[in-house]
Model the fold of this input.
Amino acid sequence: MKKLILFLAISLSLSLATFAHAQKIEKLSKEVIAVAKPSLPDISGYTGDTIQNIQTSFSKKGAVRIASLTEFREQTRLFYSDKFGELTKLQKMLPRVIVIEDGNVNFDYLAQNSQEFVQKIEAKTYLVKLPIIVAANAALTIDNGRKIYLSRDTGSFIFVGGRLFVNNSSIIAWHEKARRVARYSGDETQFRPFIMAYSGGALYLNKSHFESLGYQASGAYGISLRAITSIGLGEIDTSTKPHLLNAPTGWIIDSTFKDLYFGFYSYAAKNVVILRNRYINNVIYGIDPHDYSSNLIIAYNRVSGTQKMHGIIGSRFVNNSYIMHNDVSTSGRSGIMLDRQSGNNVIAFNKSYNNGGDGITVYESNNNLVYGNQAFKNQDHGIRVRNSIDISLQYNVVLGNRKTGIYFHTRDLGDHDYRDLTLDPYEQRVNGIIVGGLIVGNQSGGVFAENIESVGLSELRVEQNGNAISQFRGDLMSLESDIVVNLWEPDSAIMVRPNAQ
Done:
């Protein structure tokens, strides 16, 4: 009799536990949580021939003159005002610039009309000793195998209000005194030449090489697209300069970027295409679209050896963009990252491996799709999601990462003193779905969830992660047996709410 009572008590306890778990696990149709394969943009039209057609539309021959940089204070002060004294010291006089205006100028014509400041070293090779300003009504063309050295010693850079076309050529920062390329020395504040397009400006870079550009000065990071700020617009009569209301843009295709401070940077740029490039050993970031940049295509690039931070990162309201078919490796931190309210993006069919942080990271950024990627052999997690909701992870292969395969969590950022949480708001919430793919051989477990609201699961293959006893960790650990049972059938799907009452 006592044995019967004990058996009934145990059975009742197990039944209650199963019922409690059932409240946290809802069985669904597979179609409820799956989304279709993303529709990716057509990139076939972004070619050198198309750039050539754009270039020929600037048929009027422009003019070249030497002017004082103070004439362009209105345009340059927002990125260079605190460096004006430095440039004065480098030039040993009030800074002068080479100005291109009223049409298109090729580099040979520029050199002929500014011989005191543009030295011809050998055939098609020049040393430029002053900044070059391309006015809003002008274009500069560098093509046909030319090699342009921008002098670090005298403060050369290229500032584009109109158009810059670089085709099958090289632009390299040059250390005149040392007679060598101005490679990054470890001093972030040391001036190095740079290229920047301003509001209304555009860069068209094709089959070219860029080396050792940029340093720690706003907009002077290497290759940059930087819009005028709202404060700046308020100080300028835009009725007389309507081009300043247009976002900077550009196509960067089939080129190489080596030892730049940032391989690419943007502020409020739009409709930028970064396609089939090589980013090699750049210092802080490989590709870094920033604040309010949108409608970007970052595709088929190979990003390797980014020294300090992330290979590709979209940060602070980088929206409605595609990061697809890139190969990202050996970054100092994450391979690919979305950060600070960057939403409605697609990260698809990338390889991210051997990075010092995560393979793919999503921080404080809602409504993003991560589809068909490979994240393997990274030092942290394969894919990490923090303080972000409506994140869809589908058909990714996550293998052999040093920590967890997929890691969902929240975090209080109150201790992030370097962040303005008014400018960068967030909620301490996280949820999403994990559909399909393979999660195998990650050292700290397959899927980890902490403080998660919900996670949809379907078609999962989670094997041999960590100690192989528990594949689901954190809030999911106590539900693991129910998760496995409910996902056992083909085409099954469940919604797990670990903290449901």
User: Anything to note?
Assistant: The longest helix spans residues 2-24.
